[in-house]
Structure formats: C-alpha cells, structure tokens
Amino acid sequence: MVYTPPNSDERDAEVNLRLAEKDPESPTMEKYDPDLSKSEEPTETPASRNVRFLIWTILNVTSTVGIVFTNKSIMSDPSFKNRQVSLACYHFFITGAALWIASTRFFGVFVAKQVGLTQMTPIAAAMAIQVVLQNLSLANSSVMFHQLARLLLTPAVALLNYILFRIKTPRAALMPLVLLCSGVGVVTYYDSLPSADNGSTTSTQGVIFALTAVCASSIYTVWIGQYHKRFELSSMQLLLNQAPISAFLLLCAIPWTETTPAVSAVPTSMWSMVLLSGLLACMVNLSQFYIVDAAGAVSGAVIGQLKTCIIVGLGWAWNNHAVPRQSVMGIFIALTGMSI
C-alpha cells in the first residue's frame, strides 16, 4: 500500500477551519474556503497510484520479454543476421525521440537538463558498445543462455566497485554470488556443446560476446552512478543526453561494419518486426524509469528477477531440441543464487 503524508497546505487548511469554528469573527474565516481547499487537494488516491504502478509493471514485463524474442527473430533472418549495429542505432534513435517528446511541456513527464557533449561522449560510447555486444550475444546464442549470462552483471559490478572504489561486498552475499557464477558456468558449458541433430545451440562466439557484454555493461553501470552524482541527473535526463550521441556514433560506424541488405529481399512481416522492436524498446525504457522512481530500486530488482525467470522459461520452450539435465541444474543454481 502506497501512503503519502498530508502536505503543509492541507494541514494549514485544517488549522484555519478549527480557528474559524472557535471564533466566527476571526479573519481566518475569510481566508478559508472549503470548496477552494477541496479543489487544491490531489485527486489521485493511493489506490489509483497502485493501479497505475501495476499497469506500468505489466507493460515493463511484457515489453522486456517481448523485445528479447522479437530481436532474436529479427537477427535469425539472413537479411538482419549481421545488422546488430543498425538495430542498436535504431533503438537509440527511437528512445531519444520518445524521451524528448515526454520532456515537452505538453506531456511534462520530466524536465530536460542538458550536459556538454564532451562530458557525455564517453558514457554514450560505453552505452553503445555494451548494447551492440548484447545484440551480438543474442544473435549467436540461445535466448536461455543469453539471459542467464546477463545475471553475471551483478558479481561483475561488485568486483569492479571493489577494484575502483574499495567497496566491499557483504560476506552474506558472497556465497549466493558463487552459486550464481557456478550455475551460469554449467549452462555455458553444456549449452555450447554440439548437439547431434541441430549443432551447437550457443556458439563459441556467442559465449565470448556474452562475457564481453557483461564486462562492458559493468563499466557502464558503474559510470551511471558517477554521472548521476556528478551532474545531478535523473535516469530519464541522463538517457536523453546519451541516446542521441550513441545513435550518432553507431550511425557513423554502420558503413564500416555492415552491408545494406536488399530491401526487396526482406519480407514485409520482418519490417513489421523491426517496427515492433522499436516500440518495445521505448516501452521498456519509460516503464523501467517509472517503476524505479515510484517504488525504488528493490522493487525494480524483484521485477527484474521475474522477467529473468519468464525469459529463461520461454527460452527453454523456444529450443528445438532437448535441454540437457546438467543445463537445467545450472539454471536452478543460477536463479537460486540470484534470488538469495
């Protein structure tokens, strides 16, 4: 239940009303207007806030799960198999446009705050690199392994914080982190073994891309905290500064890293998937910021755990061959460690 304490205006109105009842000739009687006080009270009730939070949570879970499988379908198509940079650039462009619209006076979701190009370029480049590596990991791995590998971000950030800032991880968290890493290691080994019928589900390249993506994401995550403190930016303000720069950097890299597919060879259904991917990316970013702002990082982490379980479960069903028992055991070990 979300509870908001009464504000100072409401308390002053109650005091004036009581004084007026005791002394009808008091000047406070002229200052207090019951109808005016009621009109100034917030109309949103705790119940309506909870309903809105539930709606945003459902949108966040649905869009996060949807974008993973949508991107996997896009990158499974021969025309888009090697278009990870273009896909990331497209997502950054759509996200930046959506955040700019949300910051306008008409919507007023947040107030934009501009930071210099020189200061924002390093973190924007880190953001672009880690997203491209994630796309490469997804293109060369199974959905199940890709999502489980992302769990390594937690121990990686803990290790990086210790190396850079000497921030120690509590002893009670060390064993769960060991379980988490062990479970991911088991899944990595058995999911990358060649299968008799379909070959390797996760290629060696997929494992390399997944691990390098975790390293890049850990650096980016640590930088986010530093930029929040240094420039006093909210998550939306920071992303609005980053997204256009990241899109521009990737746009410059496209001619050197990719070849343009023949438009006539791409089916219409695939272009629809690309459009859906952009819309889902916007929903993921906007809903995630609302959840963290409304309920805090702990609730965001719990919802993230739910999304991981759903994606891993659907990825399990997505596989067109039997999952080894050892991989199943590794999945449960990793999720148990993350939950603890």
TrEMBL record:
Q: Where is this region: Disordered?
A: 1-44
Ranges for domain EamA come to: 206-338
Per UniProt, subcellular location reads as: Golgi apparatus membrane; Cytoplasmic vesicle membrane; Endoplasmic reticulum membrane
Please give, as recorded in its UniProt entry, the membrane topology of this protein: Multi-pass membrane protein
Q: What is its main location?
A: Golgi
Give start-end positions of Basic and acidic residues composition bias. Answer: 8-41
Which keywords describe this protein according to UniProt? Answer: Cytoplasmic vesicle, Endoplasmic reticulum, Golgi apparatus, Membrane, Sugar transport, Transmembrane, Transmembrane helix, Transport
The family database entries (Pfam families) matched by this protein are listed as:
EamA (PF00892)
Q: What does this protein do?
A: Involved in the import of GDP-mannose from the cytoplasm into the Golgi lumen.
The UniProt subunit note reads as follows: Homooligomer.
Q: Which PANTHER family does the UniProt record give?
A: SOLUTE CARRIER FAMILY 35
Family in the record: Belongs to the TPT transporter family. SLC35D subfamily.
* Protein name, entry field: GDP-mannose transporter
